[in-house]
Specification:
single chain, alpha+beta, 5-stranded mixed β-sheet, 4-stranded mixed β-sheet
C-alpha cells in the first residue's frame, strides 16, 4: 500500500463545498479534494493520481458512482495504488479544461465523468469517460483498465511528457489573428461571410447545427440576430428563426414549467438530456428576448416569460440568487419527472393533448412520452390553462435534485438576461430584478479584496479567481450602467465598472487570456470555443468592448473569429469595427425604438456615435452599413 497520512486513508468529501463531491462521500474510494496538500503527497510519495471530474447533475456521473465507485474491488485497487481525487468541473473549470483538452487531444472525443490518470508529478497519460466495473457491451471494464495503467506505469512512466496547452494556444492565436490586410470592406459586408460560414453547418431538415445531438446554439443565435440586423441579411434571420422555433417547439423546451433542458440526444430535437443548467436559462432568456425585439413574434415573448417564471420558481433561493442546476435524474431514472404515459395524457383532455402534442414513438423514453408540440406559435389562453393544470399535476411527483451552488458568472449572465428582457418586453420590474440580483451577488460572492469567488455553497466560498466570473460581472455592469439615471448611481456603477475592468485585464498576458489565478494548479489558457455558453475569453472581449463604447473610447483592436466556434466573440469584433451605436441624451430613448446593436447612456446633450464619429441628434436611418 502507498504510504500516506492517516487522514488520506479515508473518503474526505463529506465536508466539501461542492454538492457533486458530497454525492461521492459514501463511496468506498478514498476520495480527496484537489489541493496543494494532495498534490504534495503524490509528489513526495511517488504515487500516481486518479482524477475524476464531473458535476452534480450529470447522469453518467451518477451511473459510474453507483457502479464502479461503489465497488469494493475498484475501491481497493484505487486506494492501494493511487491517490483518488474528485473535482467538480463547475467549481474548477481550469482543471476540467486542461484535462478535457488532454482527452480530446489523445482520443478525439470527450465527456463526463472525465477520468484521467496522472503521474505523481501531475502529467496526464490516460483518460476515459464512463466505464462499467467489468467488460460489457463492447466496453472494457474499469478494473481491467486500472491493471493496464499500472503495467504502463511500471514500464513507461518515465516516458510521459508534459501536456502543454500554452503552446497550442499561442499557435492557434497566431494562425487566427492574420486577417487579409487589404480587406477594407465594412464589417457589415464581412459579417455576410461569417453568416455564410454558419449556414454551411445549418441543418436544413430540422434546424440547429450538425446532424447529431443538438445543443442550444445560444452564441450563434446571438450573432445571427445582431449580424442579420446590421447587414440586413435575410439568410441570417431565416436560420435564427427556424432554430428558435425548433428549440421552442421540440423536446428541448419544458412546455409546462418553462426553461430549457441541456441538449437533445437526437437530430430532430425530440428527446433531451433532462438536466437544466442556469447558464442555459440565462442565455436562452437573453436570446428569446432579443429575438422578440427583432422580429416582434409574440411566441418569443411568451417563451421569455416562461424562462423567467422557471428561474424565479425553481432556481431562486431566498436571497434572490440562482442555483446552478437541476438533475437529469429523479430517483435514479433519467427524466422521470417529465415523462407521461398515454393514459395520463388522455385523462387530462384526450382531444386537446392529441391536437397539441406529438404523441408518437419518436419521443418515447422508457415506455413513457416526452412532450413536443405539433406546431410552433403563440399559446392561446385555453392552452395556457391546460398546461398550467398539467404542471400542477407534475409538481406532485418526486422532483429532481438541485445543485444549490451559486456560481458567480452564471448569476451575472442571468442579470444581463433580465436587463435585456426588461427592455424588450417593456417590463421595468425585470431591470429592477437585475439590480437586486447584483446586490445579492455582491453580498454572497464578493471577496474581501474585491475579487469574486467562483462559487459559494451554504455560506462557504470557493475563492479561486476565474476570468469567466470577472468578465461576466463586468458585462453585467455595462448593462446596469446604461440603466443608471441618478448621479450617485452612475458614479457608483462607473467606479464598479472601472475596478472590474482592471481585474479582467489582469488575466491577459501577451494577448492570451489566462483561465484562472490559483496556487494549486498550473496556469491554463482560457477556453476560446463559444459553446454551449460564451467562452471566458469571449466574455472578456465583449465586456471590454462594451465598456469602451460606453466611455466613448476606443477598445483594443481585435480581428474576427471563426464562424460557429467564435460567434459570441464576434460580437466584440462587430463593436470594434464600429458597427454598434452609442446614444447619449438626457432622457433615455425607448429601447423598442433602438436597433439591437445600440447602447445608450445619460448625458447633458443628444448625440449618437457610430463608427467612432459622433453626430447631433438621432439618425434618420439605423444601420446604413447594411446597404454598403
Amino acid at each position: 500500500m502507498v504510504m500516506r497520512s492517516v487522514e488520506m486513508q479515508r473518503n474526505a468529501l463529506s465536508d466539501a463545498t461542492s454538492p457533486y463531491l458530497r454525492q461521492h462521500a459514501e463511496n468506498p474510494v478514498w476520495w480527496q479534494e484537489w489541493s496543494e496538500e494532495t498534490l504534495r503527497v503524490a509528489r513526495e510519495t511517488g504515487t500516481p493520481l486518479f482524477v475524476s471530474v464531473g458535476y452534480a447533475t450529470c447522469h453518467w456521473c451518477h451511473v459510474m458512482a453507483a457502479e464502479a465507485f461503489s465497488s469494493e474491488a475498484v475501491a481497493n485497487a484505487l486506494n492501494e495504488h493511487f491517490i483518488a481525487v474528485k473535482v467538480d468541473r463547475e467549481e474548477r473549470p481550469d482543471i476540467d479544461h486542461y484535462l478535457m483538452s488532454f482527452q480530446m487531444a489523445s482520443q478525439g472525443r470527450g465527456g463526463w465523468p472525465l477520468n484521467v490518470f496522472l503521474t505523481p508529478a501531475g502529467r496526464p497519460f490516460a483518460a476515459l469517460t464512463y466505464l462499467p466495473v467489468t467488460a460489457r457491451n463492447g466496453m472494457p471494464g474499469f478494473l481491467d483498465v486500472i491493471g493496464r495503467v499500472r503495467e504502463f506505469l511500471r514500464e513507461k512512466a518515465d516516458s510521459v511528457s508534459e501536456f502543454d496547452l500554452w503552446a497550442a494556444a499561442e499557435s492557434t492565436l497566431r494562425s487566427e489573428d492574420s486577417p487579409p490586410e487589404d480587406d477594407q470592406r465594412p464589417a457589415a459586408r464581412q459579417a455576410d461571410e461569417l453568416i455564410a460560414g454558419i449556414a454551411t453547418q445549418f441543418d436544413e431538415n430540422f434546424a440547429g447545427f450538425g446532424t447529431g445531438s443538438k445543443f442550444p446554439p445560444h452564441n450563434t443565435l446571438m450573432f445571427l440576430l445582431h449580424a442579420g440586423s446590421i447587414a440586413a441579411n435575410q439568410r441570417a434571420d431565416e436560420i435564427a428563426q427556424r432554430t428558435l422555433n425548433a428549440m421552442a417547439a421540440g423536446g428541448l423546451h419544458d412546455h409546462l414549467g418553462g426553461g430549457f433542458f441541456r441538449y437533445c440526444v437526437d437530430r430532430a430535437w425530440a428527446v433531451p438530456h433532462f438536466e437544466k443548467m442556469l447558464y442555459d436559462q440565462a442565455m436562452a432568456l437573453w436570446v428569446y428576448a432579443e429575438a422578440f425585439g427583432r422580429f416582434g413574434n409574440e411566441w418569443y415573448g411568451q417563451i421569455a416569460d416562461g424562462i423567467i417564471t422557471c428561474l424565479e420558481r425553481d432556481f431562486a433561493d431566498d436571497r434572490g440568487l440562482f442555483a446552478s442546476a437541476f438533475d437529469a435524474d429523479t430517483d435514479h431514472r433519467e427524466g422521470a419527472t417529465y415523462l407521461w404515459s398515454r393514459e395520463e395524457l388522455e385523462a387530462i383532455d384526450g382531444e386537446w393533448t392529441a391536437s397539441f402534442f406529438e404523441i408518437d414513438s419518436q419521443s418515447v423514453v422508457e415506455g413513457r412520452h416526452h412532450l413536443r408540440r405539433k406546431r410552433p406559435g403563440p399559446l392561446a389562453d385555453a392552452d395556457r390553462r391546460t398546461l398550467a393544470a398539467m404542471l400542477e399535476r407534475r409538481r406532485l411527483r418526486p422532483q429532481p435534485d438541485v445543485d444549490g451552488k451559486i456560481v458567480t458568472a452564471w448569476n451575472a449572465l442571468a442579470g444581463v438576461a433580465f436587463v435585456v428582457a426588461g427592455r424588450r418586453l417593456g417590463q421595468q420590474k425585470l431591470i429592477d430584478r437585475s439590480v437586486s440580483l447584483y446586490a445579492a451577488l455582491q453580498g454572497a460572492n464578493r471577496l474581501e479584496d474585491g475579487s469574486w469567488a467562483r462559487s459559494t455553497f451554504e455560506g462557504a466560498a470557493n475563492p479561486v479567481s476565474f476570468l469567466e466570473d470577472e468578465a461576466a460581472v463586468l458585462l453585467l455592469l455595462t448593462y446596469l450602467l446604461e440603466e443608471a439615471r441618478t448621479p450617485d448611481t452612475i458614479e457608483s456603477m462607473e467606479a464598479d465598472l472601472e475596478s472590474a475592468r482592471e481585474r479582467v485585464l489582469s488575466f491577459r498576458t501577451d494577448g492570451i487570456w489566462m483561465a484562472a489565478r490559483t496556487r494549486d494548479f498550473r496556469s491554463v489558457p482560457a477556453d476560446r470555443f463559444d459553446s454551449p455558453s460564451p467562452a471566458s475569453a469571449s466574455l472578456a472581449e465583449v465586456a471590454l468592448q462594451r465598456s469602451a463604447l460606453l466611455a466613448n473610447d476606443i477598445g483594443d483592436s481585435i480581428v474576427r473569429g471563426r464562424a460557429i466556434e467564435h460567434d459570441f466573440y464576434n460580437l466584440a469584433w462587430l463593436m470594434d469595427s464600429g458597427e454598434f451605436y452609442l446614444v447619449e441624451r438626457p432622457d433615455p430613448v425607448p429601447w423598442n425604438t433602438l436597433p439591437i446593436n445600440a447602447l445608450q447612456r445619460q448625458a447633458s446633450h443628444e448625440t449618437y456615435c457610430y463608427r467612432r464619429v459622433c453626430y447631433p441628434g438621432l439618425p434618420d436611418t439605423w444601420n446604413p452599413g447594411a446597404n454598403a
